[in-house]
Amino acid sequence: MTQPMMGQGLSTSVKDYINFLKEDLEEMFNLSEIEATKYIQESKFRKLVGEFPDQVLHYETDYWAEIIYNENK
Fold first, then answer.
1. Residue 9 falls within a domain, yes or no?
2. Does 63 map to a domain?
3. How many structural domains compose the chain?
4. Residues 62/28, Cβ–Cβ less than 8 Å
5. pTM here?
6. What are phi and psi of 18, to 5 degrees?
7. pLDDT in tens, 35-63
8. What does the DSSP assignment read for 15-71?
9. The organism sits in which domain of life (predicted)?
């Protein structure tokens, strides 16, 4: 199974942030890499980081991990 591309059109700093966020989801909520990727892609975070990257990246990744996990449970 191939993973969908998550970083198309995003800056390197946003891509790095998303990778750290994915790791937090995996570690904090015992998700697989595929599950964490899916959670991020289906979250409001994706739209917000595209529109307001400076504001979104201001928060720690564990903050967004909690928000994203709660959206998907």
1. no
2. yes
3. 1
4. yes
5. 0.84
6. -65, -40
7. 999 999 999 999 999 999 999 999 999 99
8. HHHHHHHHHHHHHHH---HHHHHHHHHTSHHHHHHHH-HHHHTTS-HHHHHHHHHHH
9. Bacteria
